[in-house]
Design brief:
Blueprint: H1 2-39, H2 42-50, H3 68-92, E1 99-102, E2 116-118, H4 119-144, H5 158-170, H6 185-209, H7 218-223, H8 226-253, H9 256-265, H10 273-291, H11 294-301, E3 305-308
Antiparallel strand pairs: 1-2, 1-3
Length: 309
């Protein structure tokens, strides 16, 4: 009986998914046609001449990408992939395969007994901590090397230039790429939003839902209710997924070899070095994805606590 009841439900989900995909495809076609029509109008043509899609950088802005951004690209991608995977597991798994209880005799000691959490949540929180640590290193290097000038808007003309870049992307007549020297305005806003808005929101909302949050601080809990954190955390995760999907698509379709050399090899040429490093990083990510399961996590988690079923 249960199987028969579930079958209509699965059919409805498939129909709903098909309708959603069809509606998205229609909207995409309409957007492209609308953008192409706009580009043919005289006023928009004048607008595109005045605002090319690139906002000028501040004086003294660095040219090129330093080598440290290469391993930062890898680490951010690596942690983000596993954070999204484990976060989704925590959200959807009803019967965890294993649990972890922190050892209360180490550096971190509490008066009360440590709370038992799922092994998935332990891995998710551990990855979060490593991602935050890596983010701190990234922020320090970003400002020490003045690379912040490349991803922080410093002029209001970033807004019309971003609109120009968006129109060029939408009409499939994409803006000229010069990422080694200066990102287009839409890229600048996307990077700024990701680094300085989405990442902090993911951190604070995740911290609010974690066992590390001070539960007895009434005023703090009232100022930031856990319901607000839950409502915020998933959309931020979906934003990161969408950002990565668009980012990878544009990297591979706007001069893949040059872009991958910029990102991973710190050089501005068309060699295959960056692509080779990128391929190696993908292999590491795929291996980590398949190894992120209790069989491999238990021995590591046992170093800092007790693993049980």
């Amino acid at each position: 009986m249960t199987a028969l009841q579930n079958k209509p439900s699965r059919v409805k989900k498939k129909v709903r998914l098909a309708l959603t995909a069809s509606a998205a495809a229609v909207l995409l076609v309409l957007m492209v046609l609308g953008a192409k029509w706009l580009r043919g109008t005289e006023g928009v043509q004048d607008f595109l001449i005045q605002y090319t899609g690139h906002s000028a950088l501040p004086a003294g802005a660095p040219v090129g990408l330093p080598p440290w951004l290469g391993w930062q690209h890898f680490l951010n991608g690596f942690f983000l992939l596993l954070i999204v995977r484990t976060g989704w597991q925590v959200r959807t798994t009803t019967r965890p395969g294993a649990y972890w209880t922190r050892n209360n005799k180490g550096l971190i000691k509490t008066k009360g007994a440590p709370k038992k959490i799922s092994l998935d949540l332990w891995f998710h929180l551990s990855l979060d901590a490593l991602w935050v640590l890596n983010g701190i290193v990234f922020m320090v290097l970003l400002f020490v090397t003045n690379q912040w000038m490349r991803i922080v808007p410093t002029s209001w003309d970033i807004v019309p230039n971003a609109a120009s870049a968006m129109l060029q992307y939408a009409s499939f007549n994409w803006p000229l790429e010069s990422g080694w020297v200066n990102y287009n305005a839409l890229q600048v806003l996307a990077y700024f939003l990701t680094v300085f808005v989405a990442a902090p929101l993911a951190l604070i909302s995740g911290l609010r839902m974690s066992p590390a949050w001070p539960k007895n601080t009434v005023w703090l809990n009232k100022a930031f209710p856990i319901e607000a954190a839950r409502a915020l955390h998933l959309p931020v995760m979906l934003y990161f997924v969408a950002f990565v999907a668009v980012h990878v698509t544009l990297v591979l379709t706007t001069g893949a070899l040059h872009n991958l050399n910029h990102m991973y090899a710190g050089r501005n040429d068309g060699s295959w070095l960056g692509a080779g490093i990128f391929a190696g990083s993908l292999a590491v990510m795929v291996a980590a994805w398949f190894m992120a399961r209790p069989l491999f996590l238990r021995p590591i988690a046992s170093l800092t606590g007790k693993v049980s079923r």
